[in-house]
Specification:
The chain is extended and about 115 Å long. Helices cover about 45% and strands about 10% of the residues. It is mainly α and about 400 residues long. It has 19 helices and nine strands. The chain has a three-stranded antiparallel sheet.
Amino acid sequence: MMLALLFTTTNVMAQVNTEDNETNDEDEITVTDLSGHQEVIEFPEAMTYDLDSLLNLYMAKTYLSEDSDCNIRDGNPTYTKEEYINRLSRLPTVMEMVYNEVVQKFIDRYSGRLRHSVSYMLGASNFYIPIFEEALEVYQLPLELKYLPIIESALNPKAVSRVGATGLWQFMIGTGKQYGLQVNSHVDERRDPVKSSYAAARYLSDLYKVFGDWNLVIAAYNCGPENINKAIHRAKGEKDYWRIYPYLPKETRGYVPAFIAANYIMTYYSQHNICPMTTRLPAKSDTVMISKNVHLEQVAEVVGINIDLLRSLNPMYRRDVIPGASEPLPLRLPQTEVSKFIDMEDSVYTYKVDELLNKRSEVEVRDDVPTYYKKSKRSYKKRRASLRKRSKKTRRRSSTRRSRRRR
């Protein structure tokens, strides 16, 4: 049965419950349609992340801090519906940024409960947004898609979802490999900001070739193109996100509203008294190619680089080991340390190699000690039965020989 939850581009033919549903369940909101039916909309997982875990990331601890010069009152002003519609319409985007009560609920979440997370993401965006924009520009995609990782990962390159999606762009293993990202026991390129951004741009470009509508593209990015096709089929061929909305998974129903809200809050944060965290950009980095197995601790100790900085620059190495013997792999270093690494490369490879890289390539089998087998009762019975059979055959043969002699 089709649910009476139909949207227009200016308002929603449904009414969001006036009580604060977030106090009942932090991960979802409830929408009541004009017929009284209630629909549950899940917040994207990144909207439930603990701010303390984000601030514990190396880049945040080292290069982000509260703005001591921010003197605005930490309170969230209220605005009219018309003001929100006007602001959204003024965003310089290719994609439509519509207003409805569901979008409003997500804006309220970002400007209210998540305002300090927004402060973090505004600061962290200085690290990551230029990378996203460059990848999107290569594939000629709308640059507002740079805010997709806001709702995917809250700009946490190490984010792992409940279902195993990983990295800033939250790739599943299968999709990541399909778009050229290497994933094995040692390497997970879904966590590499640059490689994952180019893979995401390619994926978004391919999805647009299928659906031709950006709302459907980002919905498909969230729940997979198969689910979007099913929703279109159930909606009798409708290809408008707001028309197929009732047939989408619960989290995807909130995905486009959350994306619109992310674009809004990352632009109009100052109107909600949110101060970005101040950013000290890290020193420039460069890469060297490694063709031997090397542990990051070897590099850190010999070259004299903070191990956490190395991990932050090389988040794709899951166990601090670069398996360069399998194939040449990049090691990203502070630009000032590249020459030092090249000069000391041989020393790096030999430092504590037996301790840090102790996986053996050859072993001898010890065969100088007798091997004893403890036989079970069952095998003993089988052996006795086999011996009895042999004994019977032997007796038959002996009897046959004796009878022949008598003849």
